[in-house]
Amino acid sequence: MTDDEYQPVAVSRRICAPAHEIFQVLANPARHPEFDGSESLRGAGSTAVIAGVGDVFVMRMYFSHLGDYEMNNHVVEYERDRRIGWEPEAGRGHPDAAQASPEPARWGHRWSYQLTPDGPDATIVTEIYDCSRAPEKERAGMDNGKIWVESMARTLERLDTLCGKVDQPGIQDVS
């Protein structure tokens, strides 16, 4: 697959809450473990709410093949109540953060959320994973990000539970 054929992975869900309320949860790293569908987040290593592009927030993580480590997330997209996104960088305890590591600490992959109002009290939330700038070996190992689709759907389901006003099934669109 060439770079111009690659499409980011996206999962959407309609949540019965205004975009502003959902955005407040997404912009608060301390809340991320509450809706994380991958179950890899262990807590925020920083307490500041994201306020704009250039902010960096730290998340404590765990994966069985890496153990405990941190990721430094660089905010690269920020439009209040509409879009927020970050590019992770290996942090303390991650093997790629070691000075002697042959791998880069920052692959150029990006997690983002797009919020599209759907009436006064509902929002279509789309989680997007873009690994187009990650090394080809890494993209192949994660099927160009498709391994995250189920976790992304769980994330939006949990976000719906946290923010949603009405117990109503969400719309899921995997592209």
Descriptive account of the structure:
The protein is α+β, with helices and mostly antiparallel strands and about 180 residues long. The protein has a single domain, classed as 2-Layer Sandwich (Alpha-D-Glucose-1,6-Bisphosphate, Chain A, domain 4). Helices cover about 20% and strands about 35% of the residues. It is built from four helices and eight strands. It has helices spanning about 20-25, 30-35, 135-140, 150-165; strands spanning about 10-15, 40-45, 55-65, 65-80, 85-90, 110-115, 125-130, 175. Strands 2-3-4-5-6-7-1-8 form an eight-stranded antiparallel β-sheet, with helices on one face. The longest helix has 15 residues, at about 150-165. The model is unreliable at about 165-175 (pLDDT under 50).
Number of spatially distinct domains = 1
User: What characterizes the major β-sheet?
Assistant: 8 strands, antiparallel
- The parts where pLDDT drops under 50 for at least 5 residues are 167-175
Overall form? globular
As a whole number of angstroms, the C-alpha radius of gyration is 16 Å
Overall pLDDT score: 85
User: What is the CATH class designation?
Assistant: Alpha Beta
Classify the secondary structure makeup into a structural class. alpha+beta
List the helices and strands in order: EHHEEEEEEHHE
Discrete helix count: 4
- Going across the biggest sheet, name each strand in turn: 2-3-4-5-6-7-1-8
Compute the number of strand runs.
8
Quick one: CATH superfamily? START domain
CATH architecture: 2-Layer Sandwich
CATH topology: Alpha-D-Glucose-1,6-Bisphosphate, Chain A, domain 4
